[in-house]
Design brief:
Chain A is mainly α. In chain A, 75% of the residues lie in helices and 0% in strands. Chain B is 47% helix and 17% strand.
């Protein structure tokens, strides 16, 4: 019993060492606040430790930790919603300008894109972050979010379209 | 919409997630559909732009160690109800015995303690006169007087140090020899970041709570006693103080 506990502690410490940097970076990219990121990263691992004894290993540690992290960030954002989270219904189709691409790529700077990603609905934001910031394949994203692979693809498509429209509106 | 199917496929294509069949279908479609070609180009560029906006940050040096402290190294305290029940039963028996004893005829110690005003100087003077009038009662009065003196002392010293709150006294096995397990004391203060004074085996010790309202006292921060039992009294009001069974 005691050995089992020790083994569990040792395994969790390895996980914490492996995943803390990645999770910290992902959360930072979603919150853009260093102190908040520190707190949330800590929360992620505290929550993970609480559930570690019941973690059955059906999912990989990787997808499990990422799922906890995304849930924690979204939970935090819902509570401290300083930003206006845009609902899908609020997004209106806009008319394309004469040369939209040129205009778009010229004017859409980093900050604008980052801010706009953070204003996206959670579903879209999650897939975009997991795909383009965390470089996950569709199968992994599907496991993390608990959705079918086909849904990952369609959410990415709609996420990018929504993002593009929002940025065009803001330029 | 006819092109919806291709929209998703374009997404899969730029992410390298199409199977051979889908790729073939899409490529064939792209040859004839300028709109989709445009969409593909735009999407590829946007996906690249998004990737470039990722920021790399340094993680705080102590974050991993803090996480480990807050997870695997954090002790979980649980009340061992077995000991709580035993303690309650022992208290009950103690009080039953105490009250039975005090209700015996001829025992009036409590009355004397409760009325210290009877031990004032004039009263003592009167009492001192009594032996002259009744010499046969002299020894009895002398003993009585001595008893009263000591009772008075006890009473006064109690009163002078008595705090303005209900003092909590904890019995604390030091090395576990009594119950076969180690114990810790957890004291929950009314406000965080305070120093708290405790009377441990008659010695005043001050503990700093370091911005927390919870004070842990480990068995090894207490002096070793022969019988392994500490008496620990709180010298300040606290919200709660419990001895905890330390989980193995």
């Amino acid at each position: 019993m005691e050995n089992e506990k020790k083994d569990q502690r040792r395994r969790f410490e390895e996980i914490a060492r492996d995943f803390t940097p990645r999770i910290f970076k992902m959360i930072y990219n979603m919150t853009e606040d260093y102190e908040t990121t520190k707190d949330l990263t800590q929360d992620v691992f505290v929550n993970a430790w609480k559930g570690f004894s019941s973690f059955r290993g059906d999912a990989s540690i990787y997808t499990w930790i990422y799922r906890i992290a995304l849930n924690r960030v979204f939970q935090y954002r819902r509570k401290n919603a300083r930003r206006k989270i845009i609902s899908i219904d609020d997004i209106k189709p806009i008319k394309m300008k004469e040369n939209p691409e040129k205009n778009f790529f010229k004017e859409a700077d980093r900050a604008l894109i980052r801010n706009t990603i953070q204003d996206l609905p959670e579903n879209y934001q999650a897939v975009l972050i997991l795909r383009y910031y965390e470089d996950n394949d569709y199968a992994t994203i599907a496991k993390i979010l608990g959705i079918p692979v086909g849904t990952v693809r369609s959410r990415l498509h709609r996420g990018i379209s929504t993002l593009t429209n929002l940025i065009k509106e803001r330029i | 919409m006819k092109n919806n199917r291709f929209d998703d496929m374009i997404q899969g294509y730029i992410d390298g997630e199409l199977n051979i069949n889908e790729e073939k279908i899409l490529k064939e479609h792209l040859r004839s559909c300028k709109e989709c070609q445009k969409k593909l180009e735009e999407k590829e560029k946007i996906a690249e732009l998004i990737k470039k906006t990722k920021e790399d940050v340094l993680i705080p040096k102590d974050l991993i160690s803090t996480i480990i402290k807050e997870t695997t190294e954090r002790r979980i305290y649980r009340i061992n109800w077995k000991y709580v029940t035993l303690g309650a039963a022992a208290m009950l028996i103690f009080f039953i015995i105490l009250f039975t004893y005090l209700n015996k005829p001829g025992i009036h110690i409590t009355k004397e303690v409760e009325k210290p005003e009877l031990l004032t100087e004039p009263r003592r003077q009167i009492e001192k006169k009594e032996p002259i009038e009744h010499p046969y009662r002299k020894p009895e009065v002398a003993i009585d007087q001595e008893e009263k003196e000591s009772e008075k002392e006890v009473f006064v010293s109690k009163k002078s140090t008595k705090p303005e709150f209900e003092e909590t006294r904890l019995v604390f096995p030091e090395d576990g020899s009594v119950v076969g397990e180690e114990f810790d004391v957890v004291i929950i203060l009314k406000e965080p970041g305070k120093e708290i004074a405790l009377n441990i085996d008659g010695e005043k010790k001050v503990f700093d709570t370091k911005n927390s309202n919870i004070l842990y006292i480990k068995s090894d921060s207490l002096p070793v006693l022969e019988n392994g039992i500490h008496y620990l009294s709180l010298l300040e009001p606290v919200q709660q103080a419990i001895t905890f069974h330390k989980e193995g």
